[in-house]
Amino acid sequence: MPRGRLGAVVGVIVGSLTTLGLVLVLGLVDREFERVIAIAGIVTGTCMTVATLSMRRFAANLRTGAGEVEAWLSLGAKPRRAVQRLRSESIREALLPNLDQTKNTGLVTLPGAFVGALFGGASPLEAAEFQIVVLAALILAGAITAVLGTRIAAGARVLPAPEQ
User: Fold this and answer.
1) Nearest 5°: CA angle at 143, between 32 and 59?
2) SS3 162
3) pTM for the model
Protein backbone atom coordinates (compact mmCIF):
# COMPACT_ATOMS: atom_id res chain seq x y z
CA MET A 1 0.00 0.00 0.00
CA PRO A 2 1.49 3.37 -0.92
CA ARG A 3 2.71 5.17 2.19
CA GLY A 4 1.65 2.18 4.30
CA ARG A 5 5.07 1.39 5.70
CA LEU A 6 5.73 5.04 6.47
CA GLY A 7 2.38 5.30 8.24
CA ALA A 8 3.03 2.16 10.27
CA VAL A 9 6.52 3.22 11.36
CA VAL A 10 5.52 6.77 12.27
CA GLY A 11 2.39 5.51 14.04
CA VAL A 12 4.35 3.04 16.17
CA ILE A 13 7.05 5.56 17.09
CA VAL A 14 4.67 8.41 17.91
CA GLY A 15 2.12 6.15 19.65
CA SER A 16 4.78 4.52 21.82
CA LEU A 17 6.74 7.63 22.72
CA THR A 18 3.68 9.79 23.40
CA THR A 19 2.12 7.20 25.66
CA LEU A 20 5.34 6.40 27.52
CA GLY A 21 6.03 10.11 27.93
CA LEU A 22 2.60 10.70 29.44
CA VAL A 23 2.89 7.71 31.77
CA LEU A 24 6.26 8.93 33.05
CA VAL A 25 5.41 12.65 33.24
CA LEU A 26 2.20 11.93 35.13
CA GLY A 27 4.09 9.61 37.49
CA LEU A 28 1.78 6.68 36.82
CA VAL A 29 4.62 4.19 37.28
CA ASP A 30 7.74 4.40 39.39
CA ARG A 31 10.76 5.34 37.34
CA GLU A 32 12.50 2.12 38.23
CA PHE A 33 14.35 0.53 35.34
CA GLU A 34 12.38 -2.72 35.48
CA ARG A 35 8.98 -1.01 35.40
CA VAL A 36 9.87 1.43 32.64
CA ILE A 37 11.31 -1.35 30.49
CA ALA A 38 8.27 -3.54 31.12
CA ILE A 39 5.72 -0.91 30.16
CA ALA A 40 7.83 0.27 27.20
CA GLY A 41 7.99 -3.26 25.81
CA ILE A 42 4.29 -3.92 26.31
CA VAL A 43 3.24 -0.60 24.76
CA THR A 44 5.62 -0.83 21.80
CA GLY A 45 4.60 -4.40 21.04
CA THR A 46 0.95 -3.42 21.10
CA CYS A 47 1.61 -0.46 18.80
CA MET A 48 3.28 -2.80 16.32
CA THR A 49 0.30 -5.16 16.41
CA VAL A 50 -2.20 -2.31 16.00
CA ALA A 51 -0.18 -0.89 13.10
CA THR A 52 -0.27 -4.25 11.34
CA LEU A 53 -3.99 -4.73 11.94
CA SER A 54 -5.00 -1.21 10.94
CA MET A 55 -2.87 -1.08 7.80
CA ARG A 56 -3.88 -4.55 6.60
CA ARG A 57 -7.55 -3.78 7.19
CA PHE A 58 -7.18 -0.36 5.53
CA ALA A 59 -5.54 -1.90 2.45
CA ALA A 60 -8.25 -4.57 2.26
CA ASN A 61 -10.98 -1.95 2.64
CA LEU A 62 -9.43 0.14 -0.11
CA ARG A 63 -9.35 -2.86 -2.44
CA THR A 64 -12.96 -3.82 -1.81
CA GLY A 65 -14.16 -0.21 -1.65
CA ALA A 66 -12.30 1.10 -4.68
CA GLY A 67 -15.58 2.01 -6.37
CA GLU A 68 -16.65 4.10 -3.38
CA VAL A 69 -13.30 5.90 -3.29
CA GLU A 70 -13.41 6.58 -7.02
CA ALA A 71 -16.96 7.92 -6.70
CA TRP A 72 -15.88 10.36 -4.00
CA LEU A 73 -12.89 11.44 -6.07
CA SER A 74 -15.08 11.96 -9.15
CA LEU A 75 -17.23 14.31 -7.06
CA GLY A 76 -14.14 16.38 -6.27
CA ALA A 77 -13.30 15.04 -2.82
CA LYS A 78 -9.70 15.11 -1.66
CA PRO A 79 -8.06 11.67 -1.21
CA ARG A 80 -8.31 11.76 2.59
CA ARG A 81 -12.04 12.52 2.42
CA ALA A 82 -12.61 9.82 -0.17
CA VAL A 83 -11.24 7.12 2.15
CA GLN A 84 -12.56 8.50 5.44
CA ARG A 85 -15.25 5.86 6.06
CA LEU A 86 -12.93 3.01 5.09
CA ARG A 87 -10.22 4.42 7.33
CA SER A 88 -12.56 4.75 10.31
CA GLU A 89 -13.67 1.15 9.90
CA SER A 90 -10.03 0.03 9.78
CA ILE A 91 -9.18 1.89 12.99
CA ARG A 92 -12.20 0.47 14.80
CA GLU A 93 -11.33 -3.09 13.76
CA ALA A 94 -7.68 -2.69 14.80
CA LEU A 95 -8.61 -1.47 18.28
CA LEU A 96 -11.14 -4.21 19.06
CA PRO A 97 -8.63 -6.78 20.44
CA ASN A 98 -7.31 -4.28 23.02
CA LEU A 99 -10.80 -3.22 24.00
CA ASP A 100 -11.84 -6.86 24.42
CA GLN A 101 -8.73 -7.54 26.51
CA THR A 102 -9.52 -4.59 28.76
CA LYS A 103 -13.14 -5.68 29.13
CA ASN A 104 -12.15 -9.22 30.18
CA THR A 105 -9.25 -8.35 32.46
CA GLY A 106 -9.68 -9.76 35.94
CA LEU A 107 -12.94 -11.50 35.03
CA VAL A 108 -11.74 -14.15 32.62
CA THR A 109 -7.96 -13.83 32.62
CA LEU A 110 -5.13 -12.78 34.90
CA PRO A 111 -3.18 -10.30 32.77
CA GLY A 112 0.53 -10.67 32.22
CA ALA A 113 1.54 -7.31 33.70
CA PHE A 114 -0.30 -8.14 36.93
CA VAL A 115 1.26 -11.58 37.27
CA GLY A 116 4.69 -10.28 36.25
CA ALA A 117 4.52 -7.52 38.86
CA LEU A 118 3.54 -10.06 41.53
CA PHE A 119 6.44 -12.31 40.58
CA GLY A 120 8.69 -9.27 40.65
CA GLY A 121 7.84 -8.66 44.30
CA ALA A 122 5.05 -6.10 44.08
CA SER A 123 2.09 -6.28 46.43
CA PRO A 124 -1.27 -7.26 44.90
CA LEU A 125 -2.41 -3.62 45.11
CA GLU A 126 0.73 -2.36 43.36
CA ALA A 127 0.36 -5.06 40.70
CA ALA A 128 -3.28 -4.09 40.13
CA GLU A 129 -2.34 -0.41 39.82
CA PHE A 130 0.39 -1.30 37.33
CA GLN A 131 -2.05 -3.40 35.30
CA ILE A 132 -4.59 -0.55 35.14
CA VAL A 133 -1.91 1.82 33.90
CA VAL A 134 -0.80 -0.73 31.30
CA LEU A 135 -4.35 -1.25 30.01
CA ALA A 136 -5.00 2.49 29.72
CA ALA A 137 -1.63 2.97 28.03
CA LEU A 138 -2.40 0.21 25.51
CA ILE A 139 -5.68 1.81 24.50
CA LEU A 140 -4.10 5.27 24.12
CA ALA A 141 -1.04 4.00 22.26
CA GLY A 142 -3.14 1.84 19.96
CA ALA A 143 -5.48 4.69 19.14
CA ILE A 144 -2.62 7.07 18.35
CA THR A 145 -0.89 4.44 16.22
CA ALA A 146 -3.98 3.50 14.20
CA VAL A 147 -5.20 7.06 13.68
CA LEU A 148 -1.82 8.50 12.71
CA GLY A 149 -0.71 5.53 10.63
CA THR A 150 -3.87 5.36 8.56
CA ARG A 151 -3.92 9.15 8.20
CA ILE A 152 -0.47 9.10 6.64
CA ALA A 153 -1.44 6.18 4.38
CA ALA A 154 -4.71 7.92 3.41
CA GLY A 155 -2.75 10.75 1.78
CA ALA A 156 -1.53 8.48 -1.02
CA ARG A 157 -2.64 9.50 -4.50
CA VAL A 158 -3.14 5.93 -5.74
CA LEU A 159 -5.10 2.96 -4.50
CA PRO A 160 -3.26 -0.21 -3.47
CA ALA A 161 -2.67 -2.75 -6.19
CA PRO A 162 -5.38 -5.41 -6.44
CA GLU A 163 -4.56 -8.80 -4.95
CA GLN A 164 -3.58 -11.47 -7.44
Assistant:
1) 130
2) coil
3) 0.84
